[in-house]
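Possible regression after last week's pipeline update?

I re-ran a chain I had predicted before the update to compare outputs. Posting the input and the new output here so someone can diff against the archived version. Not blocking, just want to make sure nothing changed silently.
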Amino acid sequence: MLEADGGGFWERALGVEPQQGAYTVWGSDGMIGTKVAEAGGEGGFVFPSIDEMNAVLGMWKDRQASITKKKNLIELARGQLSQLADDPESQGYLRRARESLDLLYNQHQSMLDYVGNYIQKLTDATNAKQADEDAHKAAFKGTTEN
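New output (post-update):
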């Protein structure tokens, strides 16, 4: 789903400067993981470190906060719609505005559900990787003490 700020809509509407980093796709600059080929292998992917995974989690949590903020603005806009004149044209405009804001609100809620689920999966994977690394450290420590 496309977030409502993809074209700078909210920045223009709210009169704020667009954030340059807001449109960066994570991993597009090679920040996450390491190609095995770079280490002399045949190619493939090495799972990211805990620090990299935590950085990704932080970025997703930032995105979640951004979407929540925008969803709250949409909710505020929905509540600010006032009754127009009783003529059919005015009522039609008001109905379409409500429908549009409802759709936008639902889209943002759907994105929040998706991001929340993704954050949970990343958290679970990070915890599993940390537990695995801790187990390896403990096993290594046990063999070096003998």
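Follow-up from reviewer: compared with the archived run. Confidence is low (pLDDT under 50) at residues 1-5, 20-28, 31-37. Marking as no regression found.
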